[in-house]
Amino acid sequence: MDDIAAFDEAIRTHQLYSVFQPLVELPSGKIFAYEALVRSKEERFKSPPFLFETAIKAKRCGELGRRLRAIAIEAAAGWPLFLNIHPNEFDEGWLVRPDDPIFQHQEPVYIEITETVPITHFAFCHGLLKEIRGKGIFLAVDDLGAGYSNLRYIADLSPEIVKLDRALITGLSRDKRLFSLVKSIVSLCITMGAKVVAEGIETYDELSAVLDTGAHYGQGFFLARPGYPLPRVNSSLIPKKIK
User: Fold this and answer.
1) Distance CA 139, CA 57 (A)
2) Is the full-model pTM beyond 0.70?
3) How far apart are CA 166 and CA 70, in angstroms?
4) Which SS3 state, helix, strand or coil, does residue 150 take?
5) 16: which strand partners?
6) Cα 49-217-214 angle, rounded to 5 deg
7) Which among 11, 16, 34, 38 has a CA at the least distance from the CA of 24?
8) How many CB atoms lie within 10 A of CB 52?
């Protein structure tokens, strides 16, 4: 069976599912929302990027995105959701259909687009983003600080949420120059009207430093690993000062 046939089989037999990782409000330690992450029971699609590469080859990326949104929204009813959108989905028009699952969810929905995709692509799809947001969907820019770190995303797209790439968080501590950089980026995002999520928090020290940067939310293995049923935050690991 080739990859596209396997893709068809995975869709037809419901081999795709979602796991969820919480975004934690700082400093309260309460769960703010969940990010949906795709998983597959089909071995060759264990890598989400390869799953989307195959969908693109089959010219079914938009269909795949819609299916994944439906799965996530059904599994996380009652919670605000962050849903990753592949850039190729903007080429197929599924997102603006009035019957898309994102418009049926009763809680806030944030669509995540990555900062590593050239901004020229977003200039092309800016009208689609405007239409989606006009229907009550929020925008999150993912991976800020990865790649070439084009801060024009924040100015041009005015997202409600900015997610800092884990490269900015790994090893973060108050006594390193990286801390000053992250704190400045957080301040800039706030000035431009966006709230900030620090991704990839894996240690107590990183979480403690993130708190001092002024970031609004935290996400990472230290707080909770992706899973289903919806995982809870391990409150025993959270510094007392943010409980």
Assistant:
1) 27
2) yes
3) 28
4) coil
5) 40
6) 125
7) 34
8) 21
